[in-house]
Amino acid sequence: MRQHKPCGQAMLAGALALLALAPAPTFGDAAVPPADLAAEILACPAIDFTACPALLKAAASRATPAQALADRLQAPATPSPERAKAALALSLLDARDHLDAFEAAAKVLASDGHLIDIRAAQARLGDARAVPALRTLLAKGTDVRSRVLAAGALGVLRDRDSSSALQAALAEDAEPRLQAAAAHALGQLSDKSAEGALLALAARPKVYAPARARAVEALVALGSERAVVLASQLVDHPSRDVGRAALQLLAAVPMPWTHAAVRFGLETAGLRGEAGKTAATLDLREAGDQVLAAAVRDDLSDQERVMLLAALGRLKPQGAARAVVKRLLVAPLAQQIQILRALPELGDKTIVPDLVPLLSQGDPALANNTVYALENLTGQNKGLDEPAWRAYAGLDGKPPAADAGAKAQPSGAPPAAKAPLAKPPSEAPRAKPPAK
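Predicted structure:
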């Protein structure tokens, strides 16, 4: 349902969300000194928010270790591997006030293999001073890793003057990882002059599958009509990565004769989610029943299920709400929550009596998400008051409310609410998301 913020900003946002309610990090009885926190970060085996708890502390700490990391980055005696870690940590912490430290470190490492780590981290922070060195590393780098990182960094910086060098890299069949990185970068540049080179890579029969997928994705960014025929053929590629990219292109450049390829995707494991999203984008109502059949399968990933449920909300095939609720009642908790969050988009109040009993099943997350579904389906604001909902739905032996059995609303018509309705539980004070 979703496609890139700079890496640092996106990961930082996730870290802050995880730690929004956490107490300030402590070291014994006091806040961790910035220098000590920087040392903890540099001692991590890998610098990312999953493998480095100290980086999570830093993201939430008022006493940021950015200055201490910048000092280590540019200090003449700092070993090159540690310097690379400091640069990456600063980029993930979005430390844009310390860009000069990257320049100082790059001068010390002029011919060192870790120079690319400094320049790539600098690019993540949007510093265009890294561009000349990155262009040189792409064209003349002596190792594949440096060239791959340089290509990616030039894409992040949207350096259109590097387009020719990136296109040349697409032809280097001996370096498939470089081909993939160059194709991705060209998609970020949105340079129409690269269309021919990207098409050539995507159409080549024996090519590294990730490189082909990135080439197709770049053609999506270009809105390439020339690639539609090829994309319709690549939907059934053995690599599902390539098939999903092909479906994205069919969604971006609508052509009536590509609908059969979308239907194929709905029947194919690993493609169903993207095919459902494509069907919804194309407003392919005749595929609604196929989307529904895919959405209630047992063998979906979480992402696929979310995409298919969203597609149902757009296409609204007949009987969708009833079929989805049938799945809801036997699904594990995580799937139940996904379904409850999607049900309001189907706009069918006839399922209200089936949802009310979920309020008393003892799980707070299930109850809170049920409230979200009930309130946004009905326009009623009854919270966790199960007796009130039972009365509304006619489950207390009395006639239900006049609108409790209303049919599905027309697509796009919001419920007529007289009071604020429940927000998704991750946003509403009363409803907390389930523990992961």
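Summary: The longest strand covers residues 26-27.
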